[in-house]
Amino acid sequence: MNKSTGYKNILKNFQYMKLMMASLINRFGDSVDAIASAWIIYELTSNAMWSAVIYGVNKLPSVLIMPLAGAWVEGKRKKPVMVVTDIIRAICVAFIATGYLFNFLEAWMLVITTFAISTAEAFRLPAGSAVTPKVLDKEDLSYGMSLSTALGTIVELIGMGIAAGIIAFVGTAGAIYIDMATFLLSAFLISTVKMRNDEPSNVKGNLSNYYSTLKQGFSYVLSSKVARFLVLFAAFLNGILVPLNSLQAPLASEVLGGGAEVLSVLGITVTVGTLIGTVAYPILSKFIGKEIFVISGGLAIGIYYISLIIAKPAYDSVVFMYVFVAFASFMLGLAISLLTAFLQVEFIELIEEQYLARAASIMNAIGQAVTPIMSLAVSALAAFLPTDVIFTLTGGFDVIVCLYIIVSRTLTNTFKSEESLNAA
Questions:
Q1: Measured between alpha carbons, how far is 36 from 52 in angstroms, rounded to an integer?
Q2: CATH numeric code, 7-202
Q3: Which of 166, 365, 371, 424 has its CA 20 to 30 A from that of 222?
Q4: Is residue 416's pLDDT more than 80?
């Protein structure tokens, strides 16, 4: 096996480049579709309730269906699953665009098609997670995934940035049709990818066997120290960021004393930090140990929450406020991206391949379930606590968890099992 030469080696891997291009095309279409769909819901219903209903329906399959879908995908060829689910999503968004264009689309139709699209995604995500090791050598995983994540972020930003122009030029329905085209193009590209060992298992496809396969997946995650830690820490990471994501407007107004322009600064600097961290991870991972990534990244999130509040008296200086928020948010984006890259790469490297799709679906489902639970908790706290108190409590909780991981030697004990997993 040849030693990785970095990003240059990834660019020479034609099969992975096709897989990555399919993902980037999808990200672009979805970013445009997100704006167009939000506008369709508003025009169609003029009711915030429907927006909330559709948002909830969009998340349900990730929590309820994805674990079973991961068990089903485990025994199937992954490439056909990805191609078929892309085609299903293309048909669904084409129906939405056509219904809107010819004025027969109704809110209940949006609910059903949204559920169908999310259900297809519940099958595609675990298949996609299991496919990466079939086209990338182990030593190239960190570079390949970092490049894909970084380019995906850029493409998504471009899509969101030009979405309004696309809608103005081709109309809302036209923007949705563009999303349909990206799904079809993605399906075509994936169909041409040559993968290693993408063969179905001999397990018979009945519900009892799928349930048994899923149960084995949960048993594996619970029994493997590495799998258990990665799943739980990913859920913790999703949950700890909910206060920041859900209270940005109150943060800007109540704490920082600014307006929408503060949100722009925060969003831009976090994104820049994320991009730099994602690209830098494969290089840094050669010199920095796993424990340092987890602890420093985890602590950085808690310090970010607390530092924004501690520095509040100095926000009388608008210049200081912008500079401090920009720097702190950049460092937050850097920490989050390094943590996310670490979790993604370690997950694929350390989880046994036969359990990869199931473990990925379980991690995604738990991560998705944590977000609405934390959102409800934050909403309840926000009803009687000011934003600065919520941020202080969140930061303190994050620091306590990270200190516990250090004191209990959780990471040391966890990654001692890495060699046994690799040898299995």
A1: 16
A2: 1.20.1250.20
A3: 371
A4: no
